[in-house]
Amino acid sequence: MERQPISREGYDKIREEIRAMEDVDMPAVTERIKTAREEGDLKENAEYHAARETQGYLQAKINQLKSKLSSCFIV
Q: Which of 8, 22, 47, 68 has its CA 20 to 30 A from that of 39?
């Protein structure tokens, strides 16, 4: 994979986005999953399934951004 140039500002913006998702968004979703799980039957628990879907989306986005940073160099 060819390395792509990125500005320091762009790099820092992506790092901050990752940090926010890992430190704020992901714990909030984990708490939503925990709360939904306590409501009982998971098969028919729409809140649980929505939270799990959100968690998957967040993790995919985090992975995508980390991959992007690993293939960049700061100019």
A: 22
CATH code where residue 62 lies? 1.10.287.180
Find the Cα–Cα–Cα–Cα dihedral 46, 48, 52, 57, rounded to 10°. Answer: 50
Q: What b-and-e string marks burial along 40-71, b requiring 16 or more CB atoms within 10 Å of the CB?
A: eeeeebeebeebbebbeebeeebeeeeeeeee
Q: Which tokens is 54 given? A: 């959100």
Look at residues 54, 64, 75 and name the one whose alpha carbon lies nearest to residue 11.
75
Q: How many domains does the chain contain in total?
A: 1
pTM, full prediction:
0.87
